[in-house]
TrEMBL record:
<keyword id="KW-0472">Membrane</keyword>
<feature type="transmembrane region" description="Helical">
    <location>
        <begin position="20"/>
        <end position="38"/>
    </location>
</feature>
<keyword id="KW-0812">Transmembrane</keyword>
<protein>
    <submittedName>
        <fullName>CcoQ/FixQ family Cbb3-type cytochrome c oxidase assembly chaperone</fullName>
    </submittedName>
</protein>
<keyword id="KW-1133">Transmembrane helix</keyword>
Amino acid sequence: MMKFVKGALENIDGVSIYPIISLTIFFIFFTVLFLWVITAKKKHIEAVSNIPLEDDTVTQNDDQL
Protein backbone atom coordinates (compact mmCIF):
# COMPACT_ATOMS: atom_id res chain seq x y z
CA MET A 1 0.00 0.00 0.00
CA MET A 2 2.77 2.43 0.85
CA LYS A 3 4.53 1.69 -2.46
CA PHE A 4 1.35 2.69 -4.28
CA VAL A 5 1.05 5.96 -2.35
CA LYS A 6 4.76 6.71 -2.57
CA GLY A 7 4.79 6.00 -6.31
CA ALA A 8 1.81 8.25 -6.92
CA LEU A 9 3.26 11.08 -4.87
CA GLU A 10 6.65 10.93 -6.58
CA ASN A 11 5.01 11.93 -9.85
CA ILE A 12 3.53 15.16 -8.46
CA ASP A 13 5.69 18.28 -8.77
CA GLY A 14 6.09 20.25 -5.56
CA VAL A 15 4.51 17.61 -3.32
CA SER A 16 7.30 17.96 -0.75
CA ILE A 17 5.86 21.30 0.41
CA TYR A 18 2.68 19.71 1.86
CA PRO A 19 4.33 18.05 4.89
CA ILE A 20 6.06 21.33 5.69
CA ILE A 21 2.78 23.23 5.46
CA SER A 22 1.02 20.62 7.62
CA LEU A 23 3.72 20.76 10.29
CA THR A 24 3.64 24.56 10.27
CA ILE A 25 -0.15 24.66 10.71
CA PHE A 26 0.05 22.05 13.48
CA PHE A 27 2.81 23.94 15.29
CA ILE A 28 1.09 27.33 14.99
CA PHE A 29 -2.26 25.96 16.19
CA PHE A 30 -0.82 24.36 19.33
CA THR A 31 1.44 27.32 20.04
CA VAL A 32 -1.54 29.70 19.90
CA LEU A 33 -3.60 27.31 22.01
CA PHE A 34 -0.80 27.08 24.58
CA LEU A 35 -0.46 30.87 24.73
CA TRP A 36 -4.23 31.25 25.15
CA VAL A 37 -4.25 28.77 28.04
CA ILE A 38 -1.32 30.51 29.72
CA THR A 39 -2.86 34.00 29.38
CA ALA A 40 -6.50 33.05 30.10
CA LYS A 41 -8.09 34.71 33.08
CA LYS A 42 -8.53 32.47 36.08
CA LYS A 43 -12.17 33.54 36.58
CA HIS A 44 -13.02 32.52 33.03
CA ILE A 45 -11.40 29.10 33.48
CA GLU A 46 -13.29 28.56 36.75
CA ALA A 47 -16.59 29.61 35.19
CA VAL A 48 -16.14 27.28 32.23
CA SER A 49 -15.03 24.38 34.41
CA ASN A 50 -18.17 24.71 36.55
CA ILE A 51 -20.61 24.57 33.62
CA PRO A 52 -21.15 20.77 33.85
CA LEU A 53 -21.83 21.07 37.58
CA GLU A 54 -24.56 23.69 37.31
CA ASP A 55 -28.05 22.38 38.00
CA ASP A 56 -30.12 24.80 35.90
CA THR A 57 -30.07 22.71 32.73
CA VAL A 58 -33.15 21.42 30.98
CA THR A 59 -33.63 17.67 31.12
CA GLN A 60 -35.43 15.69 28.45
CA ASN A 61 -37.64 12.67 28.96
CA ASP A 62 -37.07 9.52 26.93
CA ASP A 63 -40.42 9.94 25.15
CA GLN A 64 -39.41 13.37 23.82
CA LEU A 65 -36.33 12.06 22.02
